[in-house]
């Protein structure tokens, strides 16, 4: 594995870690990974006010995690790069393993 530079760590933190640092943004990434969606659809799926969804989409868009494409009067959002969901899946697997390990410790006590 190549050594990581401080600049790479800062970029990783700014563009990815800050971008996915909210549960609603993580859910948005999963929703747009399935298919391109507009704000109305995402508002309904997340069950939060439209301004909240727009705020989170702006953060994801600024970091390149989602892209916006206009279709008539609607704007549809999709993943900027499918690898972000693959990376999140790896983190989910890690958390699942961590939770299983902790449950095993509790069950042995």
Q: What is the name of the CATH topology of the domain at 7-81?
A: Arc Repressor Mutant, subunit A
User: CA-to-CA gap between the ends?
Assistant: 39 Å
Which CATH architecture of the domain at 7-81 is right?
A: Orthogonal Bundle
Q: Which runs of at least 5 residues are low in confidence (pLDDT < 50)?
A: none
Described by the principal axes of the CA atoms, the overall outline is: globular
Order of helices and strands: HHEHHEEH
The CATH H-level homologous superfamily of the domain at 7-81: Winged helix-like DNA-binding domain superfamily/Winged helix DNA-binding domain
How many runs of DSSP E, i.e. beta strands? 3
Structural category is alpha+beta
Strand portion: 5-15%
Largest sheet: 3 strands, antiparallel
**Rg over C-alpha atoms, rounded to the nearest angstrom:** 17 Å
Strand order of the largest sheet: 1-3-2
The residue-averaged pLDDT reads 94
Helix fraction, binned, reads: 55-70%
- Count, helices: 5
Give structural notes.
By secondary structure, this protein is an alpha+beta fold. It has a domain at 7-81: Winged helix-like DNA-binding domain superfamily/Winged helix DNA-binding domain (Arc Repressor Mutant, subunit A), CATH 1.10.10.10. Helices cover 65% and strands 13% of the residues. The protein has helices at residues 6-17, 23-34, 39-46, 50-62, 83-108; strands at residues 37-38, 66-71, 74-79. Strands 1-3-2 form a 3-stranded antiparallel sheet. The longest helix is centred in the last third of the chain and has 26 residues, at 83-108. It is globular, with a radius of gyration of 17 Å.
